[in-house]
Amino acid sequence: MTTLAENRNRLWPFLAQVAKFGAVGLVGFAVDVTVFNLLRTTVFDPHLVHAGPIYAKVVSTVLAILANWVGNRYWTFSRDRQSQTLREGIEFFAVSLAGMGIGLLCLWFTHYVLGHTSVLADNISSNVIGLALGAVFRFVLYRYWVFAPSRRAASVVPDGTGARQVATRSNPTVSPSAGA
Fold it and tell me: Are 98 and 70 in contact (CB under 8 A)?
């Protein structure tokens, strides 16, 4: 019986995190789709620029990544964000760019290999199929790598005597580090 209760106690926080990730993702999705379609039908129209849909997708996805960075860092994974913001940001953007690659690959394949070149086909391939596959990929890597609770960076704090001390976000009290 305790196993069921323990599983339930772990499931609810996980589901809440998935829901937050989904809400942040919806904001990013709105940014992505809006900017993609604006660019795809104007300055990056394939009649004007051969690779226009690809360029439009790159620009729209980068803007969506910025929106998602803020939402995921300060809301979805706020408990587990790293103290080393630059490293975390680089990892977040690396994962996001790989996720973007999944969407671009789907768009490229349907547009250039299968020959489905309508705005609807471009949206289905990049903003439905590519986004769904990329979202699963990103969530797993954000949760277990970028914002992994076990990676909350221990920061080295000088203690005034030249010895190294370690403090963590989860335990801000400073304790002597091993091997210092």
Answer: no
